[in-house]
Amino acid sequence: MDYFDHLDVARHGFLTIDQLLGPITHITGLDETGAREFITTLDSNEDGHIDKQEFITMWSVMFE
Question: At how many degrees (to 10) do helices 32-41 and 17-28 cross?
């Protein structure tokens, strides 16, 4: 199981910004506002959720 699936406990196939705030603030050191902005910029289809492909992109940006 990958990290996306671990976080997607409801198995909707997407994550909400609120679900990602904790991990993103912890990993990046951003405050909540910065983390929200970071997550929002990677929501490429602007639906307010992060799907698996957007998550993969986000993860690659964070660990390049």
Answer: 110
